[in-house]
Amino acid sequence: MDRYDRQVRLWGNAGQDLVRRSHLCVVSRGETPLLQEILKNYVLLGGSRITLYLDAEGGRSNHLLYGDLREALAPLNPEPLELTTHRVNLNSFVIPNSERYSAIVQVGLPVGLRHEGDLSPPVIHCFARGLCGYVHLQLSEPHLLLDPRNEYTIPSLRLDNPWGELSQYMDSIHVEQMDDVQLSQLPFAVLLYKTLNTRRAATTAAQLKTVLAETYLHGLNPRAQSDLNYAEAVRFAHLAFTKNRQDGLLNRLTRDVCPLLEQENKLGFQDTMNQYIATLLSTLKRYADMHNGHFPLDATLPDMESTTHNYNALKRVYEAKAAKDLADFKKLIPGDIEIPEHVIDEFCRNTKTTELFEPLGVCRGPPDSSAPPLLDALKRCQEGKTVDLPQLNVTFSYPTETYIAGLVTQELVKLITHQFVPIDNCFVYDALDPQNMATCRL
Amino acid sequence: MPRETNIVKILGQKNYEKIRNTKCLLVGAGGIGSELLKDLILMDFGEIHIVDLDTIDLSNLNRQFLFRQRDIKKPKSTTAVNAVKHFSNSKIVPYQGNIMDSTQFPLHWFEQFDIIFNALDNLAARRYVNKISQFILTPLLESGTAGFDGYIQPIIPGKTECFDCTKKETPKTFPVCTIRSTPSQPIHCIVWAKNFLFSQLFAAENTGDNMDDPNKDWGTTDPEEIKRIKQETNELQELQNIITAKQKERIPAILKKLFIQDIEKLLLLGNLWKTRDKPVPINALDIVKSPEDEKLDLNNIWPIQQQIQNFINVTEKLIDRMPKENNFIEFDKDDEDTLEFVAAASNIRSQIFNIPMKSVFDIKQIAGNIIPAIATTNALVAGLSSITSLRILNLLKYAPLKDAKDLNMAFTAKSSNMSQNRYLSNPKLAPPNCKCPVCAAVVRGVLHVSKKSLETFTLQKFVECLQSQYEYEEDISLLDMTGQRLLVDFDFDDLLQKTLSELKLHDGSVILLSDDSDRDDGMLKKPAEFYIVVSGSLNEEKMELPKLNIPLLPAPPSTTDTEETSENVDTVATTEGGQEDVITILDDTDTTSSKKRHFSDDDEGPPTKAVKQAIDDDIIELN
Ligand SMILES: [Zn+2]
């Protein structure tokens, strides 16, 4: 109920806390609108620790919103602003102590900077000129997601692979003794379970629908045609099958993710959340090995047409299992690392989402063979060369810089909170000719 | 100014002078509005007029970067303007007001602007400004955000599709009997607590609903249930008396009435519970006041006893506030007392109906129709909007705009999944949708009438003038779009002898004339919409009708009758027009696909019927 209410609704209090505790390093030649806008957005979102490196020779753009940065940024966040500015020679600059930052933003610099040590946080390169610009995310270690905040997740009903209590519950419902009204009040999960357990085998949603029509509509309950629960059973027949998907996720975890994380782990992770999630992922593999290939159950049930009583009874079966699984999972977490409870809980709620098993920066495929031509043109601009594109041959670019700064800060939030899928990994923008725009992997 | 030389470079001297002479209207000084104001100033637009109704709230400060803690409760428009003065080269004029108020903002006021930027948060105002831009043919740059998603849509009247060419998400509605008798989801209980209970107890105007109207639609035909709803409403009025009489000791009586006696009465309606779980009244022993008011975590769900205690505590607080606030407290999601009351009441009701309870945090989002909002999305949408304005005004010397349809919309989404390429999508603008009730399916004009004629012209005379000027046949209908009512049609002529002023037509009224005749050739005149401007003196009789060419078109097939009867007529809308963070924007990025767009077009009926339907429907908006 406060200043951050509207954004906490996107990434939760834990996410906001990560933003609040984050430390941003920004390197720029001089003070530009792009730099100021990035800092403004970051502080507005709740960030307050900034280390800024400016070139000793770098000047100030003559098109700035803010005069004195500290004076302008401080009122945007009730936390005290910790802004330290250093003037350095960027030509020979090596970012010191880079491992202590949450992220590094390089504003308008033609080449990537080197950093001390082996570990580096994510680096965002960005630039805007005229009506064009780009954002490029460079990762030194896999970026792991805690919650992709996927709006469409597939619930793990496990009707095709039930555990003891679920079977017991389902078997305690005697559909053959029910009248049509009672049948119409059953959640669709029950109808699907019963259909799966008729003598007619169904291994696909299409087959299941056929069997459902034959055994239920043309058998048990001929009056079901207009029943909402029957309509849902048909519509959500595919939800009955969770085993294949689960096997696929486990396969991905075992084959791709775990070996990669083990390798990475030898070096250690720069990012604490990455370290936590990597530990949880390898725990997840051990859990699955010990539990017949299953992940801890997530209790989130979709809405189902039924009486509240029936729905709640079913929900209790899922909730009990989820609570037990979570407790079992927690027992397997190695003792040498202390992971906050809420991180573990959130992780377990999301083990059904694909994005968890596609660490950004490694598992999403090789770089593209060629970069978009506009990106080359922009890079030549950065080096001070002239480029024969009218939309680039201008120095005024305030609106474009506002736009690019918005994107940069948006990506920062995704990276810092380990929620939402960050850009993979470069976006090139052209306001004049959308044909030139591209997302690519560098 | 050094800024100037930069801009001259990109625009050229001639265009720079043009931008210095450009007058912008910026509607909204909220999230996008603050960003746009800054961008427009830094682009050196000559004049910027900014309109906002709202005052600043703490929850704005995470993105509306021109405002500070000390500005809370001050008007957004003037505060924003004060905050930008020090870097502004532009003339900036703030207005605190509702853009839909035609007294403060008459049509001719809009005509002074070269371009309009919409930075609004609600559908009603977006639609209104869109319509105005269609009347005066001024380009409109529409924009909106919801969380990580944002969009801009340039609208060039007559050339590209308008805001209403595609269907917009409308607020959820619920049948009255679900809310009052048979809730099955948390939102039903929240709507009950907020729209029925809270407003009845703390914000009731004693005029109320006309309960004796024999034509009133109750959402049910069960006479027993209607009787019960009537009685319940009367009893609620008695509860209201407890509040206004400050009888704190009788708060337990309110609880007993709402959560025990009313539920017991409901249980007597046996046919309601044949296919539903029966509600269980609360335990009277739980109605106890806690000695102290502890601070609880608003993210958690508290046990029922705690909910009841909270109900008592917060009701006491509200009772204390009543006399100071003229016995009228409105629900406001950012007013903690009102929010906690609604949360406690809806959770108690949820418990009774075996529905899961919700945390105060979640209830706030539902009851307040809160759309998540962040600085970054606002910044990038405003950036896109200001870049696009340069193209609309044709200010880029190297990129002259040949065809309005070469402009692009923009949708931005959090997803950067490459295969879908949705990071930023830029569909080209479509031409107006021929079925659009706003920009294509009606002819539009401005009608001038003198003050005197408004007093003397009868509706009959007025209709005759319209008919003869535009060659409509006998059967026409005339609707007052502003007041949402029928003035005349083939079987309603009661108002014909009233004068225009008696009919409450005024400066800013919009009327719709449509052809209801049944011609042999199956042709109908296109409907015409008029904006009424009242001008001139009290002495002079004068009415000036615009010169319009209203074509004859083949009549649409009459499929609407079935639609009208199948519509659920008695509904509760949860919208809260005109407030911050309220209305669902067109945030569905799927609208970028033209397939879907055209799919939704097919659902739209012919425009005149659509309008009529909106008037016929008894949609209760209880806010
Ligand atoms: Zn339209």
TrEMBL record, chain A:
One of its GO terms (biological process) is protein neddylation. GO terms for cellular component: ubiquitin activating enzyme complex. It comes from the Eukaryota. GO terms for molecular function: NEDD8 activating enzyme activity. This is Uncharacterized protein. It comes from Huiozyma naganishii (strain ATCC MYA-139 / BCRC 22969 / CBS 8797 / KCTC 17520 / NBRC 10181 / NCYC 3082 / Yp74L-3). The gene is KNAG0L00400.
TrEMBL record, chain B:
Zn(2+) binds at residues 162, 165, 436, 439. Residues 8-438 form the THIF-type NAD/FAD binding fold domain. Keywords: ATP-binding, Ligase, Metal-binding, Nucleotide-binding, Ubl conjugation pathway, Zinc. One of its GO terms (cellular component) is SUMO activating enzyme complex. The active site is at 177 (glycyl thioester intermediate). The keyword Protease does not apply. Residues 584-623 are annotated as: Disordered. ATP binds at residues 28-33, 52, 60-63, 76, 121-126. SUPFAM superfamilies: Activating enzymes of the ubiquitin-like proteins. Gene3D superfamilies: NAD(P)-binding Rossmann-like Domain, Ubiquitin-activating enzyme E1, SCCH domain, Ubiquitin-like 2 activating enzyme e1b. Chain: B, domain 3. Residues 305-364 form the Ubiquitin-activating enzyme SCCH domain. Pathway: Protein modification; protein ubiquitination; Protein modification; protein sumoylation. InterPro entries: ThiF/MoeB/HesA, ThiF_NAD_FAD-bd, Uba2, UBA_E1_SCCH, Ubi_acti_E1_SCCH, Ubiquitin-activating_enz, UBQ-activ_enz_E1_Cys_AS. GO terms for biological process: protein sumoylation; protein ubiquitination. Transmembrane segments: none annotated. One of its GO terms (molecular function) is metal ion binding. Belongs to the ubiquitin-activating E1 family. Heterodimer. This is Ubiquitin-activating enzyme E1-like. It comes from Huiozyma naganishii (strain ATCC MYA-139 / BCRC 22969 / CBS 8797 / KCTC 17520 / NBRC 10181 / NCYC 3082 / Yp74L-3) (Yeast).
